[in-house]
Structure formats: structure tokens, C-alpha cells
């Protein structure tokens, strides 16, 4: 199958309505289209059509037991997808939709098993990206969409990265420029006794607690799942976001980091914060040290750049574990296969 790439915008703030219409048609015909969202690009199909959804799994090489997020254009659609809309969901939708927040709730009978991977729950998100919004409207149905990468690769933040992974696997990619957030949405489940964050993202744990009170953070957010433990979010158990390079996260101050890297192989790369690159022969930067959003915005691109530059061994600076930094850390520890050292005193 030949993959067509069409610009999603006709002018600065004007949508390419022809391209959006075409995407809508392809989706109604039960095929898959890659679309931009504010977090990362998504691989979309009609969420009500189990056969269409199965093509997403095929294109990505995604394990069948990893459920998908359903994307909607209007808050009212939520009640079609879930058994019941609790008060907490209404509050979250009012505060953070459209935007980078996904909620998990017990599903309605409209959701095919292919979407929920056989779970009794469904994940729902209302994206803020104008193209995503317009494509959902053009398709006339909610769209199931995981990130538009091959399973195991970093999520794509622009159309070129989607094409790298999806060439000849899907009929259409809409090019809407670079994704603003750069990491996937925050996933919170309301299907547990207390709201629980399964994946941190652009909406922070601090923001969720300010709105809902007590909110748990799943163990798998910060740690490797122990053998045999069932993942609350199946996506958490897979090796993820993995570049080819071998990454080690080095905790400590910049000076400690520098001293640590000096003792290592000469051709090693560093993944550091902006302004620090001048101290190293091979460096890729990912945002500013005190700015989690700028790190999120750069992280996946930086991982792909390390591969493009042929990095074999990489030492990475560690982000702060608060605000959007928590989402950055969550992705980076997976990219590093959970290899973390303390610059001061060896392995931790
Ligand atoms: O920002 C995003 O969320 C992007 C864009 C395209 O919207 N999508 C995305 O989808 O990141 P995906 O499939 O790459 O990640 C969805 C995550 C996975 O970890 C999956 O296991 C989890 O959400 N998930 C989906 N449905 C779930 C459910 N019913 N229960 C628990 N976890 C679920
Ligand atoms: Mg993904």
C-alpha cells in the first residue's frame, strides 16, 4: 500500500478541508489514518469497528493485549462510550478537555473488544489539536488511536517520523507540523476506588490533586514492574520508547555528571540540557534543566537524533520528578531500560 502524506493546513490557521474530508472518507471506509494531536501523532481508526481497529494493531505490530485510547470531539460523546459518567470525570473534562488527559472508566457495550483488549474499561480523550478535532468530526465517529510509531519505537512528534515507521503500512498521513506537548497524554483511571495516574503526561499529578484531592500514582510510573505483577496499564509492561543506543541515566548535579562522563569511553554521547552541550564532544540536548515542558517537547526527537547520529552509548541527565518532569522521567527510564546510576556512588 502506498502511503500518501497530505498537509493538514492550507494557510497559517486554515485547515486543508480537502485533506480532512479525505481522511474522514478513508476512516468511514474502515481504514487507518495517521493524524496530528497536541501530544504525539496518532494512528486512528473507527472506534466502533473492531475490524478497522485490528488494522491499527497490524500496522504498529502492537501486542493484542494492549488497549487503545478513544478520541472524541465533544464532551457529550463520553456518555456513549462509558457505562456511567461519574462526578470526577465531569470535573476532569471541564478542567482539562480538550487537552492531554485520558480518563479510564468502565466501558459501554458500544466499545469492541479490540479497543479495550478485553478489559471491562475504556480510555477516552478529547484532543485539543484542531486537525484531530476536525478529522473526528469528518469521520463522524470516535477514533481509537495509539501513538503512530511501530510498537517499541519512540512516539512520533512530526509527520516525517510517522512516515519513517508507517511507510507502505497505511494509506494516509496528515501532516500538521510538530506536536506541541511532545509526550503522550496523562492517563488517569477512575475505575479504581481512588483516582490513580497510570501514565504521567502534560497534565501534571499536582494539577490533578488540586482538582480531585487524593490521587494515587501507580508504581509502574517510576519503577520497573516486578516479574509476574499484572500491569494496571498494559502499555507499561512493554519495553518502550527504546532507541537503538544504550542509555544510562546519571543522577546528580551537572558537575557530578561531567566528572562521571569523563571517566567513560571517548565516543560516548550525552543527552543533556540546553547550554550544557559545549562541555562534551558528542551531545544531544533535550530542553532546559528547569523546564519540564521544554524537556517533554524535545525528548522523543532527541532519542531519534541519537540514533540518527549513530550513538552507541549514551549518558543522560536526569529530569526533576515533579510537574511535567515526571512524564519525562517516566519515558526516559523506559528508553534506558531502567538503567540509572548515581554519579556519586555507583549503581542504585
Ligand atoms: O497522547 C496520547 O495519549 C496519544 C495520542 C495519539 O492521543 N496516544 C497514545 O496511545 O499514547 P498509546 O496507545 O500509545 O498509549 C495508550 C496507553 C497504553 O499504555 C495503554 O496500555 C493504556 O493507555 N490504556 C488504554 N486503555 C486502557 C485501559 N482500558 N486500562 C488501562 N490502560 C489503558
Ligand atoms: Mg504508544
How would you explain this protein's 3D organization?
The protein is an alpha/beta fold. It has eleven helices and 17 strands. A hairpin with a 6-residue loop joins strand 9 (186-189) and strand 10. Helix 1 (17-28) crosses helix 6 (130-139) and helix 10 packs parallel to helix 11. The chain starts with a strand and ends with a strand. The mean pLDDT is 95. Bound molecules: threonylcarbamoyladenylate (TXA) and magnesium ion.
Strand order of the largest sheet: 1-8-2-3-7-4-6-5-9-10-11
Query: Count the strands?
Result: 17
Quote the average pLDDT. 95
Quickly count the helices: 11
Any low-confidence stretches, pLDDT <50, length ≥5?
Answer: none
Distance between the termini: 48 Å
For the largest beta-sheet, the strand count, sense and barrel status come to: 11 strands, mixed
Q: What is the approximate shape? A: globular
Q: Evaluate the radius of gyration.
A: 20 Å
List bound small molecules: threonylcarbamoyladenylate, magnesium ion
Could you spell the SSE succession in H and E letters? EHEEHEHHEHEHEHEEEHEEHEEHEHEE
Classify the beta-strand content into a percent band: 15-25%
The percentage helix is: 25-40%
Backbone structural class: alpha/beta
Amino acid at each position: 500500500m502506498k502511503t500518501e502524506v497530505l498537509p493538514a493546513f492550507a494557510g497559517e490557521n486554515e485547515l486543508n478541508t480537502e485533506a480532512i474530508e479525505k481522511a474522514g472518507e478513508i476512516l468511514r471506509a474502515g481504514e487507518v489514518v495517521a493524524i496530528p494531536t497536541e501530544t504525539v501523532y496518532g494512528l486512528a481508526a473507527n472506534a466502533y469497528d473492531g475490524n478497522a481497529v485490528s488494522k491499527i494493531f497490524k500496522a504498529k505490530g502492537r501486542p493484542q493485549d494492549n488497549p487503545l485510547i478513544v478520541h472524541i470531539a465533544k464532551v457529550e460523546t463520553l456518555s456513549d462510550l462509558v457505562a456511567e459518567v461519574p462526578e470526577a470525570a465531569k470535573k476532569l473534562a471541564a478542567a482539562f478537555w480538550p487537552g492531554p488527559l485520558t480518563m479510564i472508566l468502565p466501558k459501554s457495550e458500544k466499545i469492541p473488544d479490540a479497543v479495550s483488549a478485553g478489559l471491562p474499561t475504556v480510555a477516552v480523550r478529547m484532543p485539543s489539536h484542531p486537525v484531530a478535532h476536525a478529522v473526528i468530526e469528518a469521520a463522524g465517529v470516535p477514533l481509537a488511536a495509539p501513538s503512530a510509531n511501530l510498537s517499541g519505537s519512540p512516539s512520533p512528534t512530526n509527520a516525517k517520523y510517522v512516515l519513517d515507521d508507517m511507510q507502505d503500512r497505511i494509506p494516509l498521513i496528515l501532516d500538521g507540523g510538530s506536536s506541541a506537548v511532545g509526550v503522550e497524554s496523562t492517563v488517569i483511571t477512575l475505575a479504581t476506588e481512588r483516582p490513580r495516574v497510570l501514565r504521567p503526561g502534560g497534565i501534571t499529578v499536582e494539577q490533578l490533586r488540586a482538582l480531585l484531592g487524593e490521587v494515587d500514582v501507580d508504581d509502574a510510573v517510576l519503577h520497573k514492574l516486578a516479574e509476574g505483577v499484572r500491569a494496571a496499564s498494559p502499555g507499561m509492561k512493554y519495553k518502550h520508547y527504546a532507541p537503538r543506543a544504550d542509555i544510562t541515566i546519571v543522577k546528580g548535579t551537572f558537575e557530578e555528571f561531567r566528572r562521571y562522563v569523563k571517566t567513560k569511553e571517548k565516543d560516548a554521547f550525552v543527552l543533556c540540557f540546553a547550554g550544557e552541550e559545549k562541555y562534551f564532544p558528542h551531545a544531544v540536548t533535550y530542553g532546559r534543566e528547569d523546564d519540564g515542558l521544554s524537556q517533554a517537547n524535545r525528548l522523543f526527537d532527541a532519542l531519534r537524533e541519537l540514533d540518527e547520529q549513530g550513538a552507541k552509548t549514551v549518558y543522560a541527565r536526569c529530569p526533576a520528578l515533579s510537574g511535567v518532569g515526571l512524564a519525562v522521567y517516566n519515558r526516559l527510564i523506559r528508553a534506558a531500560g531502567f538503567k540509572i546510576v548515581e554519579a556519586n556512588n555507583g549503581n542504585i
